[in-house]
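About this split. The held-out portion is used to measure sequence recovery: a designer receives only the structure tokens and must propose an amino acid at every position. Recovery is the fraction of positions where the proposal matches the reference. Here is one held-out target exactly as it appears in the evaluation file.
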């Protein structure tokens, strides 16, 4: 069974987001070994943070991210510079990875300041959810649903239309 890890900076706040993520996590258990690793966001004490302060925080978050990536997993970063993909393309990516013999994938969602450039550089794949802006918590729910949708496409289960 394929191992898919979602590495996120920060925790979910609103109950509806927690409920949605929990529902898709439960559903995913039939298709893959799915786990979420929540890492703490680096605190920036400056009210109007300087670029240097943000860069320092992102570098510390990157260290946590790299430590959390399961051994052998391919990093897939969610970032605005990434390529938008369809649900079918996501499903094909999962199939391709599974057939390669090393199907483990670690999706990464950064903090409100994004991801350190080192995470993007080390990522084998960079995906953009949309040209629209979502909160990082909403992106987590949307990505979890898309992972589930990709799994159902590959399994031939009636969910995707």
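Reference sequence for scoring:
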């Amino acid at each position: 069974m394929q191992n898919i890890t979602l590495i996120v900076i920060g925790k979910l706040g609103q109950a509806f987001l927690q409920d949605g993520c929990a529902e898709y996590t439960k559903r995913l258990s039939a298709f893959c070994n799915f786990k979420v690793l929540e890492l703490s966001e680096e605190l920036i004490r400056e009210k109007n943070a300087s670029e240097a302060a943000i860069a320092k925080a992102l570098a510390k978050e990157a260290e946590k991210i790299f430590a959390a990536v399961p051994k052998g997993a391919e990093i897939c970063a969610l970032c605005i510079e990434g390529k938008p993909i369809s649900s079918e393309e996501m499903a094909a990516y999962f199939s391709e990875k599974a057939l390669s013999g090393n199907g483990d994938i670690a999706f990464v969602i950064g903090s409100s300041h994004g991801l350190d450039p080192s995470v993007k550089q080390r990522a084998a794949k960079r995906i953009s959810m949309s040209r629209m802006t979502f909160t990082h918590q909403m992106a987590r729910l949307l990505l979890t649903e898309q992972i589930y949708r990709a799994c159902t496409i590959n399994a031939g289960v009636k969910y995707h239309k």
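Annotator remark: The beta strands are 3-9, 33-39, 74-84, 105-109, 125-128.
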